[in-house]
Specification:
By secondary structure, the protein is an alpha+beta fold. The protein folds into two domains: 176 residues, q2cbj1_9rhob like domain (Jelly Rolls), CATH 2.60.120.620; 42 residues, DNA Excision Repair, Uvrb, Chain A (Irregular), CATH 4.10.860. It has six helices and 17 strands. Strands 1, 2, 4, 5, 6, 10, 14 and 17 form an eight-stranded antiparallel beta sheet that branches. Strands 3-7-15-12-13 form a five-stranded antiparallel beta sheet. Strand 12 and strand 13 form a beta hairpin. The mean pLDDT is 95. The structure holds nickel (II) ion. Nickel (II) ion binds next to loops.
Length: 227
């Protein structure tokens, strides 16, 4: 299941992130690849330890922490520090699955990748190609979103980035470990949460059935969550 998260970064925040990463030096993207994905990958990345990348990553993590849709959909437990990549001149990333466990260089911080996230940082009109193509249980889906918008998808899915044939695609990408490991259980909680929000808007937050359903949500979360 792909979940678009609109406007993760507003205009001024996006501009700040772009200023930081545009002033940093890009390197061959294979620095973060596993063995198999290195064969498929052809792009540029900012080094994990680049101060501009770390600062931009902090801005993104702050924005995510304030985004109710992201929190409801991902139920994040641990977020790998956001990374940044760039594709131009026909560059692409062929079909692959993301590594199951990510270890941050130097700190030993470990994240099991349940969900992958891409935040688009360039206007879609500014480049051709560069769609994120994900093979889901409902077929192949392609995603190319406005700058500042993001998509969440299961890290277990086969996915690729189509060749960028004009302009330059810039994005942030990272992985997160969810409190809910199982995609199906996480989906049930997200659907239930969305319905409760709708009911609360119609009936009022204090309505007895809204309170009861909120209780059901938390009792399922308590049953299934790692915290
Ligand atoms: Ni990937």
């Amino acid at each position: 299941m792909l979940i678009p998260i609109p406007e993760v970064l507003d205009g001024p925040t996006l501009a700040k992130v772009r200023d930081l990463i545009d002033s940093s030096a890009w390197v061959d993207g294979n620095v973060t690849s596993g063995h198999q994905s290195a064969l498929a990958k052809n792009n540029l990345q900012l080094p994990e330890e680049a101060p501009q990348a770390q600062q931009a990553g902090e801005i993104i993590r702050d924005a995510l922490g304030r985004n109710p849709l992201f929190i409801a959909a991902a139920l994040p437990l641990k977020i790998f520090p956001p990374l940044f990549n760039s594709y131009a001149g026909g560059q692409s990333f062929g079909v692959h699955v993301d590594n199951a466990v990510r270890i941050q260089a130097g700190t030993g911080f470990r994240v099991r990748s349940d969900l992958s996230m891409t935040i688009f940082l360039e206007r879609p009109e500014a480049y051709d190609g560069g769609e994120l193509t994900v093979e889901t249980q409902f077929g192949v889906q392609q995603v190319k979103l406005p700058a500042g918008h993001a998509v969440l998808y299961p890290s277990s899915s086969l996915h690729r980035v189509e060749p960028v044939t004009r302009g330059r695609r810039v994005a942030s990408f990272f992985w997160l470990q969810s409190m809910i490991r199982d995609d199906g259980e996480r989906q049930i909680l997200f659907d239930l949460d969305s319905s409760i929000q709708q009911l609360a808007a119609t009936l009022g937050q204090g309505h007895a059935e809204v309170i009861r359903m909120t209780g059901v949500y938390h009792n399922l979360l308590r049953r299934w969550a790692d915290a």
